[in-house]
Each structure stands twice: as structure tokens, then as C-alpha cells.
Amino acid sequence: MTDDRQTEDRRTEEEQIVESQTDQGGTEERDTEDEQTGGDRIEGVEQAAQVGHSDDDALLPELVSHLRDHRTPLRQQWAERITQAHLLSSMTAQEVFSEATSVYDNYVEVLETGSVQALQHYARDLSERIIPRGVETHEVIGIVLLLRDVLARSLFEKYREDFELLNRVLDAYEPAANRIANTVAVSFVEQRERVIRDQQDALVELSTPVLQVRERLLILPIIGVLDTVRAQQLTEQLLHGIRVHRAKLVVIDITGVANVDEAVANSLVDTVTASRLMGADVIITGLSSEIAQTLVTIGVDLSKMHTVGDLQGGIEEAERQLGFRVLKVPDEG
Amino acid sequence: MKGDGAGTDSSPLPASILSQGSNLIVSIHAALDDEQLLRLQRDLLDLVGEKRSRGVLIDVAALDVLDSFAARTLGDLAYMAGLRGARTVVVGITPEVAMALVRLAVRMPLTQTALDLEEGLAWLGS
User: Fold this and answer.
1) Do A246 and B91 touch (CB under 8 A)?
2) pTM reported for the whole predicted model
3) Spans of all domains in chain A
4) Which of B93, B103, B107 is nearest residue A278 as measured by Cβ atoms?
């Protein structure tokens, strides 16, 4: 009995399975039908996209050849716009024209190949050439944007009959042009920053010479702006100089320091204190009358510091303390 | 010249006190903790009286760190030794230590400093 029931159950189960399978099959069929119809629609869209895409693909070379064909007038127009906008005023007309030519060719080439690397390289090269001539960032960005405008204008001219086509042409042109403008601007700014960094490094290296003028006497002429970082660096160099030269006296000359504020004065006091800890006394020279007045006005206490009017006086005082005596040799005969 | 044990307390100090002529030369070999610093101060002041020293030289060249407590203790030591009749000079402060002391605004106003042992002895002899 139980077997029968079970077989019955099984049968019904099987039937159910078969039914459900057929059901599934039915739905599957329906699904595939749906997919097919949907697929048709999608394909239609894709086809349209492909048409548009292949169109765009075709557009860019067309655009490039247009720009190549009209190279001379467009370049001329661009150079004129540059002159009108008073950009690159530090360069001669001929230089502007030759740079314009190579920028133009590079520009078109990047539009054609889509590779910005060559342009990056060129932009870096260009920056290297024109930065020392005082060309500003706004000028570089300005000329690239002008070129972009000139070319866009010529495209308007060419495709104005067909608005749809013009739209597609601009779709292809604008992102590429923007990328180019971006690349040139970034390369220029990077190059500029690199130049500034190099100059800063050179300045830091050169800015604080610690010089020995007599046995155990150092001079430290400070020129330029003294900020906290530089004061720190200067103190470090001085302390090492004291150790290396076994200095007993240091003359710090601040004739060349344009501005002494409270922070600078305090860092000088620190320098003197640190030098004393190393066993070297410090004489400060070259306090101008303005600086002396400023220091008194802002209330910096320099009473513990030994100051002498000018560098000569400072060195003479130091020689006296160290026991040197400078004698003038009388003229012979 | 005669070597002298630094202290009678438990561990030996990483510092030695040498007597040379009328001067005491203290050479610190490694960083001292606060307790050891105070012990050094006590031992040294005792010795100044015992040896009737005229000068004390403290060499800190081996130290690459000198904290504010150590700096103050050395300053105090110089002052106390002065009260007992001995001039004190601290020598061998490295550029790094000097910068750190200045940055921490630690002042050793009453302490004479010199570049190294030679300079310090020259100052004591003068």
C-alpha cells in the first residue's frame, strides 16, 4: 500500500516535474522570444551606435585632413589672433610664427593619433625654451585655447550646412582638443615648478657660506630673506662650521638682510645661544639704522648680543679678541 | 693622574671623574638617568671639597641627547661648584645637542661652554 502510494506520489511528482519542465520550457521559449525581440531592438540601437561610431571614426581623419589642407590659412589666422591678443609679446613675430607652426602640427598629429605623449614631450621642450624668456602661464594657455577656437571656428564654417554632422564633428573634436589644452598647460606648469624648485635648491646651497677668515674666526654673511626654515638651516651649518674649523669667534653680517622682524631676531638670538653652547662667541654686524629702530620698536632684547656697526668693525673687533694685530707694511724706499 | 670611582651606590655610573692637577675632569660615557645625574652631582661636589679643586671640566661629547633636566642639573652643578671655589666648563656639546637645547629653550646662563676638552682645559688654565 505504502509502495503504491509512493509510486503514485512519485508518478505525480514526475508528472509535476514534467509539467513544470514543460512550463519552464514554455516560459523559456517566451523568454527567448522576448530576448529576441529585445535583442532586435538592442541590435538596432547598437547598429545605430555603430553607424554613429564608425561615422565618428571616419570623422576624425576627415577633420584632420581638413585641418591639414587648410594648414596655411588657419595657422596664419591663429598667429594673427595671438598678436591681436598681445600674447607672447616677449617673442618676435617670426619666433611666434615658427612656434605656432610646430604647435599646430603637433596639435593636428595628436588629434589624429590620440597619443598625448609626443605632445607632452613637445610641450616640455617648448616650456624649457620659453620659460627663460619670461613667458607667463596665461599666455601659454591662451595660445592653445586660441588655436582651439580657430580650429573650431573653421569646423563651424565647413559643416554649418549640416547641423547634425557639425554636432558629431564637435563631439569628436572637443574632448581631444580639451585634452590637448590640458596636457600643454600641465606640462608648462610642471616645467615651471621644476625650474623654481631647482632655483630654490641652488639658492639654499649657495645662501649660507660659512667662511674662515682667520684661524678660529668665521664669517657668515647672510643675504636675502631670512625665514624660520632658513634660519634653522643656517644655524645647523654654522654649528658644523664651528666644529670643523674649531672656531672661537663668529661674525654674522646681516647687511644683506632686507627685513628683520621679531621671528628673525629671535632666530638670531637662538643662533647665538647655540654657538655659545659650542664654545664660540658671536659678533653681529651690519644692523642698519632702520633695522635698529625696528628692533627697538618691536621690543626685541638684543642686549645679550655683541653687535658692531659694520663687517670691517666686526672683523677688527674679533681679531683684537683673538689676539691678532694687523700691521700695515711701510712702503719700501 | 688618578682614576676615581664615581660613586658608592649600587651600580657604577657611566661616567668617570679624573683628577688632574688642580682640576677635576668629568667624562660622561652614556646617557645618565635623573637619579644617576643627581648622584654624579653629589659625588662631584664632595670631590671638589676633598681635592680642593680650582676647576671642573665636564665632557658631554659622547651624548647625542641632553634633555632639559640634564641641562639644568649641569647648570646647577656649575653654580654649586662655583660656590665651592671651582670654575666649571662644559665641553663637547654637539651641533645637534646645541640645536635641541636652543629649540627647547633650555638656558644654561651661568655655564661656561667650550668646544672640546682641549679648549676647556685652556680656559681653565687661563
Assistant:
1) no
2) 0.58
3) 68-202, 211-322
4) B93
Out of B91, B98, B120, the one facing A239 most closely (by C-beta) is B98
List the strands of the sheet with B55-59, edge to edge: B2-4, B15-20, B23-28, B55-59, B87-91, B112-114
CA A108 to chain centroid: 25
d(CA B81, CA B88) in angstroms, rounded, equals 7
Cell of A313: 668693525
- Please name which of A232, A243, A218 lies closest in space to residue B61, comparing C-alpha atoms: A243
Q: Determine the Cα angle at A218 with ends A212 and A221, to 5°.
A: 100
* Pairing mode, strands B2-4 and B15-20: antiparallel
- How many residues are listed for chain A in this entry? 333
Task: Compute the distance between CA of residue A327 and CA of residue A333 in angstroms, rounded to an integer.
Answer: 18
Q: Tell me, what's the pLDDT at A93?
A: 78
**What's chain B's length in residues?**
126
The rounded distance, in Å, linking the Cα atoms of A230 and B15 is 37
Burial tier of B71 (Cβ tally within 10 Å: 0-12, 13-18, 19+): buried
The topology under which CATH files domain A68-202 is Globin-like (1.10.490)
* Domains, chain B, with CATH or none: 2-6+13-125 (3.30.750.24)
Rounded distance, CA A64 to CA A154, Å? 12
Residue with cell 600641465: A186
Query: Where do the DSSP E strands lie in chain A?
Result: 211-214, 217-224, 249-257, 281-285, 306-308
Predicted ipTM? 0.77
Q: Looking at the domain A211-322, which fold is it?
A: Transcription Regulator spoIIAA (3.30.750)
Which of A235, A242, A279 faces B99 most closely, judged by CB atoms?
A235
Q: What angle do CA A105, A108, A112 make, to 5 degrees?
A: 135
Average pLDDT in chain A: 78
CB neighbourhood size of A216 (10 A): 18
Kindly state whether B61 is in contact with chain A, defined as any CB-CB distance less than 8 angstroms: no
B95 at A interface, C-beta within 8 A: yes
Q: What are phi and psi of A151, to 5 degrees?
A: -70, -40
**Chain segment A218-248, per-residue pLDDT in tens:** 999 988 878 878 888 888 889 999 999 999 9
Interface contact flag, B102 A246, Cβ < 8 Å: no
Question: What is the 8-class DSSP label of residue A310?
Answer: S
